[in-house]
User: Fold LacI family transcriptional regulator from Candidatus Enterococcus wittei.
Amino acid sequence: MAITVKDVAKKAGVATSTVSRVINDHPSISENTKKKVRRIMDELGYVPNITARNLGKRVSSAVGVILPPLDSKERIGNPFYLEIMEAINEEARHHGMTTAIATAKNFDVLLENVERMHLQKQVDGFILVYSDSDDPVIDYLYKNKIPFTLIGQPYHHENEIIYIDNDNQLLGKQATEFLIENGHENILFVTNTTHESLYFERYFGYQKAMMLAGLEAHPSVNLEQAEDYLIFDTTLKETKATALVVIDDIFALRTMQLAQMYGYIIPDTLSVVSFNNSIFSTLTHPYLTSIDIDISELGRVAMQKLQELINDEVSNGVRLVIPHRLIKRETVVEKRL
Assistant:
């Protein structure tokens, strides 16, 4: 038989309302009474009803994880989101909190979902796992002073937002430098998105590495539309590319398939470096050379900082950079001159 508030109140010799106030740590109850009631709760094995307690405190003990619009198969199947949600959920559990997911196929519906979660007090704060120039959600969170942390680099209010990120410009630079060190000079940057923060940063890093080496930095190759795929072979031939830096692992596999369809052999005639070091990097041969961005640490720190923000333990305007490392595998071969 389940122990109730009435059982605790009876044994402690207090009113049920007093037990409820102790559960909510109400300042009107003396410390001696709190200690007495809590001791009785422990003796009886009473577990407070978290939902009822939170209704009284007007908190939810939950955080919202906001995913970007899942408007393509690559995004839906991208293991980055699953890995980061797992890390956030595990860290939330350590703080006695749960997670709720906000997702949609476009930004308008996503914003509606986030507004509903906030107005209905379903969550105490949010973690955005992306940074997009077209995103209305971050503006809503910022303007309404809703606690949130961002995984990625914000486009505005950098000094007032807590954000956790890799040094994506350095990632792009080091990926390109690795190819240059292996004798490649005609290197392209390939992407399927041109409005996310990580694209700009990684592409800037590519440009920087090429310019520092005295090599031509080409415009990014954007494979966002069906017709872009049709001219990919022409682009490779015109630039005489021998190596590619690709925006992430899952898209790197798509790009490699496309290149092989046009007769290129990975890595003999076309080397590839990517980012994330996801499960996809070792699912098919050749294994993908990729930069590990420590997804678990990104999620863990984002949750940790959100908890501190909710508890007023940290002020806005914090940037935290998570280290990365290059994982050398089979998609880069030394180009002999």
Notes: The domain at 167-291 is CATH 3.40.50.2300 (Rossmann fold). The chain has a mean pLDDT of 91. The chain has two domains: 60-164+293-323, 167-291. The first strand starts at residue 62 and ends at 66.
